[in-house]
Amino acid sequence: MNRLVDRTIEEFLRMTYGDDLVRVLADELALQEGLPRDDLQGCGRQALALVAAQMAKSQAEMFEDVGAWLTRLEPIRRLLRFSGRDFRDFLLGLEELPGRAHLVLPLLAVPELTITRLTGAIVITVRAEDPDWQPVLIGLVRGMADDYGALCLIDADGPDIRVEIWEERFAEGRNFRLSSELSVQGGRA
Q1: Per-residue model confidence as pLDDT tens digits over 97-124
Q2: N or C: which end of the chain has fewer CB within 10 A?
Q3: E strand residue ranges, 86-144
Q4: Whole-number Å distance between alpha carbons of 32 and 65
Q5: At 164, which helix (H) or strand (E)?
Q6: Contact indicator for 139, 67 with CB cutoff of 8 Å
């Protein structure tokens, strides 16, 4: 499963920063590791750390960008949109995310999530041994807020992600339909 994570990071870097950067990173990591390489196989996190240093970002910020990027991939976006008719429903349904991910990728260890409703906020508690999961989830929540058109404040505090929804329909969200429309010809679908 680490190969899938590395490949995801490689695709994020390729689509965000270009093929040339990925080639340079692969060459640099090959020199550091003493192995011939033509991709970032086994070195996704190290590559992300190198890019973070070049961009003057923390590694957590880079993982947050990965989470937001995932929401722009149409198959993942569609799966996430099935979690709720609006952003609040989406957040409240996040407890089901590890189970749904397990159905598609049984070896991916998505952390357990607990959702708590507070006055004016929804708190997502991330129970993960790997600290990189929290920023990925923050990016995912940020990307889905944009997708739904919600205005919110997202804040991390320890294992918790606090989301204050200020306005559910701040902007026009991206179009989403559960199924594609059928064309009707001669009164038949």
Answers
A1: 888 888 878 888 888 999 999 988 999 9
A2: C
A3: 112-118, 121-127
A4: 25
A5: strand 160-167
A6: yes
